[in-house]
Amino acid sequence: MTLPRPLPALQWDVFCRVIDNFGDIGVCWRLATQLAGQGQRVRLWVDDASALAWMAPQGCPGVELRDWHAPPPGAQEAPTDVMVEAFGCEIAPEFIASAAYQASARGQKPVWINLEYLSAERYVERNHRLPSLLSSGPAQGWTRWFFYPGFTAATGGLLREPDLMQRQEAYDVAAWRNAHAHPSLPVPAGAAGAAVRWMSLFCYEPAALPQWLQLCEAASTPTHLLVAPGRPAHAVRQALGISSKNVLQGTTDKRGQLYISYRTPCPQAVFDEMLWACDLNAVRGEDSLVRGLWAGKALVWHIYPQDDDAHHAKLQAFLDWLQAPASLRQFHHTWNGLDDLPLQWPDDDTLREWTACVQAARARLLMQDNLVAQLLGFVMEKR
After folding, report:
1. One-character DSSP codes across 252-321
2. Could you give the residue numbers annotated as active site?
3. pTM above 0.85, yes or no
């Protein structure tokens, strides 16, 4: 996107209430750091920043963490130019009142953006950039704008660092595999043509997980399964009948042709490297789905389950956009509990088909502006 004029360094206030430490805060941290990378100043207001201790231990220049319950910026601090309300979290009334007072004093209202959840459903294109006029309160008469991430040019796009593809292309996958190989793998991890399938697992508790582990255990090709900590590790532990009292982070296990490495919490950049190094990535939620798409490897998405089964339509819409082949669509249905048909082990040809599907989808996405570029352009338009 070519901005109409150079964007000055604005003060952004991004608000995040954590429901899932790996998802909400992950998206908001990426947003904040990518804005800072474009010369913007960001205050990130969050009610639980504990996950950032391992997700982003080095912090980021230009991004300041604020506790959700901290008082609004004082008179000596920069007033807000842009307010981003992530995932309908509802900005504190005290902050809105303070922002309204500052806006009146300086003669300019901030741009107020409601950043919505990611979906491939059709309503996203209809609702993207729609205004909502506030009819009461200290910000009466202000406009709040709905901004929808998405997969098409008629949406707000996806978060992507400008140099992401170059970093991935330059990354040494063989070296990463050698450094993280299971100690009992039958062949050198980084060897060319090594007959080992590398798979990452970041999921909730899919009912089909025990069946998948059994398929890996009995397969002719060894599978090195990299299990993320937390719910994925607990789900694998339950499926294998391992005592919940055992500490698994940083340990390994072996069941037939299944070689398991239990991962420790890691920074976002290290998580990306794991996705780049795997042949198949099982991802969950929103943030890791997007990172899995950018990785360009075969992926299976475990969508966040909702009580009213609204996630079924959301999953179908994503698979339609992905142009998923029948085998990948069926795997998703079983993995997400839409049916109870048996999982089918993807042979090498099937896995290549899945990979080609994801790479074609990535190519379509790369033709579109990323979310931060679109946000910057939108703010310039509305200021």
Report:
1. EEEETTEEEEEPPP--HHHHHHHHHH-SEEEEETTHHHHHHHHHTSEEEEEPPP-TT-HHHHHHHHHHHH
2. 24, 286
3. yes
